[in-house]
Amino acid sequence: MAREPEPFGNSLNVECIDYFPGYHAKGLETVLLEEAATVARSAGLPALDIGTNTSSGDYPALRRFGLKLFYEYDEVACRCRPADTASGVDHQMVTLDAAVWMGLVKVDHWCPTNFSFRDDAERIWIAQITDGGHRAILELWHDEDPDATAGSSVAEPVPNRSALYAQPEVLDSPTLMSRLLGASAALAGEAGAERINLPCPSSIELESAHVNVIGRTFAFAWMRKELT
After folding, report:
1. Four-point Cα dihedral 63, 67, 70, 75, nearest 10
2. C-alpha to C-alpha distance for 129 and 94, rounded to whole angstroms
3. Confidence (pTM)
4. Which among 98, 132, 155, 204 could bridge 94 via Cys, Cβ 3.0 to 4.6 Å?
5. In 10 A of CB 135, how many CB atoms?
6. 59-113 pLDDT per residue, tens
7. CB 187 within 8 A of CB 91
8. How far is Cα 159 from Cα 175, in angstroms, rounded to an integer?
9. Rounded CA gap, 152 and 67, in Å?
């Protein structure tokens, strides 16, 4: 169950539908989604959400159930140049517990904004970013590949993963989103990264004056069925 600021708002999120391959043509998606919708209505929630990594949410079984494309985002590979932090963008490094998530939404809308998958064993960099009257939080961490580091020592790991949280209006502004991604890439560079993948709404055309993009691919789409 997600209770987030607009544009996401309150909904029941279906994280995954999974079953054995032999059942693919038996309509189990509809049965499971109908049960999820019943749960959502009983909880007084106005919408049911489900995610898909099929481009633009083009998944027939979900559309037949009445789900429509609601939000999709891309993974943007950015070059990290510490000196490129935008003028007027400030930041403060904080701990996970000290970060102020209220009023922010996660740009990839994977989970509520006050939840983290990281634990104390991982190195985490968290920056509270301010750009004029707008706030954001950048979370960076080093996701170590045991196979890649077997038999070697990494004295000072650098961040290679990220999560980004922003005020809802930033999701509709090319300039604000570009400045935020540029500042985030610069902060990742200060932590030693040469490039970092950052989420960005698919509808946003980024401005090269603020962020150095070296690649961009579709990542995920959220579909929604209104229950009212």
Report:
1. -60
2. 10
3. 0.84
4. 98
5. 18
6. 787 888 889 988 999 999 999 987 666 667 898 988 878 888 888 999 988 666 6
7. yes
8. 25
9. 48
